[in-house]
Amino acid sequence: MNLKRTILAFAAAGALAGALATPAAHAAEQVTPPRQSWSFSGPFGKYDPAQLQRGFKVYKEVCAACHSMNLLRFRNLAEPGGPEFSLAQAAAVAAEYKIKDGPNEQGEMFERDGRIADAFPAPFPNDAAARAANGGVLPPDMSVIAKARTYERGFPWFVLDMFTQYQEQGPDYLTALMLGYREKPADFTMPSPTMQYNMYFPGHAIGMPPPLSNDRVTYDDGAPQTLEQYSKDVSAFLMWIAEPHLVARKRLGFQVMIFLIVFAGLLYFTKKKVWHAVDLEPGAVEKKA
Amino acid sequence: MSGHSLYQPQSPFMKWMERRLPIAGLIHSSFVVYPTPRNLNYWWTFGGILTFMLGVQIITGIVLAMHYTPHVDYAFNSVEHIMRDVNYGWLLRYLHANGAAMFFLAAYVHMFRGMYYGSYKEPREVLWILGVILLLLIIATGFMGYVLPWGQMSFWAATVITNLFSAIPLVGEPIVSWLWGGYAVGNPTLNRFYSLHYLLPFVIAGVVVLHIWALHVAGQNNPTGVEPRRDTDTVPFTPYATIKDSFLMIVFCILFAWFVFYMPNYLGHADNYIPANPAVTPTHIVPEWYYLPFYAILRAIPNKLMGVVALGASIVILAFLPWLDTSKVRSARYRPLYRQFFWVFVVVCVGLGWLGSKPAEGGYVIAARILTLYYFAHFLIVLPLLGLFEKTKPLPNSITESVLHGDVPLGASAPPPVKT
Fold first, then answer.
1. Which of A23, B249, B254, B370 has the most CB atoms within 10 Å of its CB?
2. Structural domains of chain A, count
3. ipTM (interface pTM)
4. pLDDT above 70 coverage of chain B, percent
5. Residues in chain A closer than 8 A to B361 (CB atoms)
6. Which CATH number is B37-281's, of 3.40.640.10, 1.20.810.10, 1.10.10.10, 2.60.40.10?
7. Facing residue for A13 by CB, picked from B261, B262, B347
């Protein structure tokens, strides 16, 4: 009976919640991005190294023109659980870049070839230069952007996500964003003529022009050179750089889970045995005096 | 409860030690032979879980502090350095961040358990008040810890919460500058929050010792709320409570590991992966989920000062619970009306939490006001009156009787009391 009352109370609360959800019109209503399927989702998810390598190529050839990635070091490209380039490949990528170093013994700054320990160089010397070159808008750093972007799931989805482990809102949103450029609706006023209309961007007016188009980047592994494929690959790459230890985390998690479940089982049966006598008869507990 | 130590040292060294520092005897009498009511259910494990979580937070926190840099220019990147380059740094940080959430979850369950079974009533008032002090301390510690990664939510949460003090008449503004160490949230603020975030857990540990001391003086309450009267009412702490608590603690760890390994950012906010930027205000400034009910109460009141007062009162009122609840019967098992009001109160708290996550506009504000009003009415109207008017069910004569025969009304064909 108590349970029934509790359920009734929750039902009443749910009805209240439903009634309240209607007037909640946000100022910047966000369109829900479609769900993609990712190799790294779920408890056994792993990054696909080939996809990350393609995504890196897209980033390097397109995004890196405006977006910095300050936390990426060339050595990361060769680390396990990532794009898994060979060390020689990572060193070759690093050598393509000139790194400002110094001061030398004469007290002067100088440029040298990149090494694998170096961070990926930023396209602009500072934020002000980046703004000046991009119509006053700062292109955000991409190091953790896949974890810094999301969309609201709403009730009851956010509760269910706890059980289904859905947490790829970031890459889903980023993919949708790159595919979301549309003609401006007639009744929409653009705050600035340099801006673009994007159906998934909060507020819809985005400073970034459509970055990708079919055949923009040449793939070496035969993957389709389409806008959709580029968007997915670069989003997966951004997820990796935001969460570089995801594969190790999920692998360790599975081991920990097995251990904890077995341990809990053993403790449960030990507990049953210890309490057996007490549950049978109250006087059975021996009191040592 | 029985004061005399039953500990008999065996080895010559322990005999030598016991005459000089009887620490083994203290542990023996507190955690081995200590009598615990035999009918404790699993809700009683959450105190142990909280102690365990405090240990987890302190250990992971000390290691994290070895790699973290409390400076506005480096804090965000030093956390990312932990996530990327420190060996198992991602594990330490996710344990610590999710550990805070698990800590609050366990604290709330622990408090609701105390409320359901009337654990705050005579002679456990001081035990309960120490618990309210612990709640205040973990709220402060958790808040300052959330500021340290110096993301957008860190910065804006710090700004919003410290600004609450500006509502105090006359001295509000000077107090806020004093808290900030400047004229805005900045490097001095981050430095002092880091210092205090490191200090407070040890203060918490000290109050936990007092809390456990008070518990061991008064003895544990139990689901019947009837004090143990005879030997068969209790069992020794070890092995009975130890094994039962260990089991649930490991089950709790499964929940904890689920978040740490599979959904480490689910309980956090995406905006905190954007470095703090004083020039850009996030669309919705939302605290961590465990502060949401209090945040809803704060925003429900249109007047800023009164909102802050309500926020403070919503926590402080808990300390008066032993005197606001006028019923002589402890456990909700024997209080049919209170039991219903208790569940309504739980739903109200969860509802406030949900409203705290929503923007303060339209129907949400109205609902938050109604629920805030009910929150206080529960303490100030429902509990005092219930004690006067509620017709409680007859209490069992002893814990043993309740365990063996269920709760049989007096006068009905009650089985003969069990002989000891």
1. B249
2. 1
3. 0.92
4. 95
5. 24
6. 1.20.810.10
7. B347
Q: Could you tell me if residue A45 is inside a domain?
A: yes
Asked if the Cβ–Cβ distance from B235 to A43 is below 8 Å, we say no
Contact criterion met (CB < 8 Å) for A23 and B340:
no
Instruction: Tell me if residue A99 falls in helix, strand or coil.
Output: strand
Cβ <8 Å between A282 and B38: yes
Instruction: Kindly state whether residue A141 falls inside one of the protein's structural domains.
Output: yes
- Which run of H or of E encompasses A91? helix A87-95
Q: Which residues of A touch B228 (CB under 8 A)?
A: none
> Hey, are the CB atoms on B6 and A289 less than 8 Å from each other?
yes
* Residue A9 CB neighbour total at 10 angstroms: 16
Q: How far apart are the first and last CA of chain A?
A: 44
pLDDT digits (tens, 9 = 90+) for A18-60: 444 433 334 456 899 999 999 999 999 999 999 999 999 999 9
Among candidates A2, A147, A264 on the partner chain, residue whose Cβ is nearest the Cβ of B265: A147
Question: Which domain does A181 fall in, by range?
Answer: 29-244
Would residue A201 count as lying in a domain?
yes
- The structural domains of chain B, with segments of one domain joined by +, span 37-281, 286-389
Residue A82 resides in a domain: yes
One-letter amino acid identity for B195? S
Confidence of residue B220 (pLDDT cuts 50, 70, 90): very high
Q: Which residue on chain B is closest to A2 by alpha carbon? A: B340
Q: What CATH number has the domain bearing residue A121? A: 1.10.760.10
Identify which of B359, B211, B279 has the alpha carbon closest to the alpha carbon of residue A25.
B359
Mutate to test the interface with B, among A172, A263, A286 (most CBs of B within 10 A): A263
CATH assignment of B286-389? 1.10.287.980
DSSP SS3 for A73: strand
pLDDT in tens, A256-273: 999 999 999 999 999 999
CB within 8 Å of chain B, chain A residues 226-255 = 242, 244-245, 248-250, 252-254
Residue in B closest to A155 by C-alpha: B354
